[in-house]
Amino acid sequence: MAIVHPTAENFDALIRDNKLVLVDFFATWCGPCKMIAPFIEEVAEEYEGKAVVAKIDVDEAQEIAAEYGISSIPTVILFKDGAPIHTEVGAHDKAFYANLIEMHL
Q: How confident is the model over 44-73, as pLDDT tens digits?
């Protein structure tokens, strides 16, 4: 599986140590989150080695969600060189997430 599941302890290192990181903030009870999950998985596999794709359950990692002001899910944040460069709220198709990574490679 190409998706990583960071914790509060290793999240900062993950975004700092990788050039491009796409983070999907989700919850298990969220319908739109479940809808985009296969797209996020496919993007993770296709861009393995080029970008890191992570999923963070907002119920389990409330401190990370709070740090980035996550108030609606799904929210996807793209980090480049340790800094958030794009935040997208709501569900989109696979091409949207792939293009987001592609634009910043």
A: 999 999 999 999 999 999 999 999 999 999
CB 54 within 8 A of CB 4: yes
What is d(CA 86, CA 48) in angstroms, rounded to the nearest whole number?
Answer: 20
- Distance separating alpha carbons of residues 70 and 75, to the nearest angstrom: 7
Domain that holds residue 24: 3-102
How many domains, the chain?
1
Whether residue 1 is predicted with pLDDT greater than 80 in this model: the reply is: no
SS3 28: coil
Q: Give me the CATH number covering residue 70.
A: 3.40.30.10
Task: With beta carbons less than 8 A apart as the criterion, state whether 32 and 89 touch.
Answer: no
Separation of first and last alpha carbons in the chain: 21
Catalytic positions, written as ranges? 30, 33
- By DSSP bridging, strand 3-4 and strand 52-57 are parallel
